[in-house]
Amino acid sequence: MDQQSKAQVPVKMLLNPAHCLSLGFGSGLAPKMPGTLGTLVGVLLFVLLPQMDWKIYLAITVVAFVAGILLCDYTAKALNVHDHPAIVWDEIVGYLITMFMVPGDWMWIVIGFILFRIFDILKPWPISIADKKVPGGLGIMLDDVIAAIFSLIIIQITLYLL
After folding, report:
1. What average pLDDT is seen over the chain?
2. Cis preceding-peptide flag for 126 (omega within 30 of 0)
3. How far is CA 86 from CA 8, 67, 80, 94, 135, in A?
4. How many domains in the chain?
5. pLDDT at 3 > cutoff 90
6. How confident is the model at residue 2 (pLDDT cuts 50, 70, 90)?
7. 82 band by pLDDT with thresholds 50, 70 and 90
8. Residue 114: domain span
9. Is 1 within the bounds of a domain?
10. Does some domain include residue 37?
11. What is the largest CA-CA distance in the chain?
């Protein structure tokens, strides 16, 4: 990580609603493990969301993804860094994707969290390609979406086999 991407983000950016969302309501401003804290915001949102039909959950997640492309691009440009560690909306949405049609009990919530963080941190192929080669807000979001899909597949296979 270069010096510029380690630069501290001004707290006053949270006053802008778009930056506040892309910075995970401030969780991305943590000096250590901002992606993990952003994912915890995703966990909180998942827990707070009422039980709903899968189509509604999917629609909310798709809207969050599309909005994330714009939000993350906007904040990245303001910070003059492609994917600043403080931008964690992608982790929030990634966790919501991970938990699509997954039971809401704590065991699955924790398993989803662990799997998503492993894939997001290690970035195996093709996650690493999306992370390095896709520019802008789409690039910021896409690597986390792929990590989430990998996590979701593992959880769904496990649920099927149980």
Report:
1. 94
2. yes
3. 9, 17, 12, 15, 17
4. 1
5. no
6. very low
7. confident
8. 42-47+54-161
9. no
10. no
11. 48
Q: How far apart are CA 47 and CA 104, in angstroms?
A: 7
| Radius of gyration in angstroms for the set of CA atoms belonging to the chain, rounded to a whole number | 15
> Does residue 22 fall inside a structural domain?
no
- Using the CB atoms, write b or e for 130-155: b if 16+ within 10 Å: bbeeeebbbbbbbbbbbbbbbbbebb
Do residues 89 and 43 lie in contact, with contact meaning Cβ atoms separated by under 8 Å? no
Give pLDDT tens digits for 89-141: 999 999 999 999 999 999 999 999 999 999 999 999 999 999 899 999 999 99
pLDDT band at 31 (very low <50, low <70, confident <90, very high): very high
Residue 16 inside a domain? The answer is no
Q: In sequence order, what E strands does the chain have?
A: none
Summary count for the chain: helices (H), strands (E): 8, 0
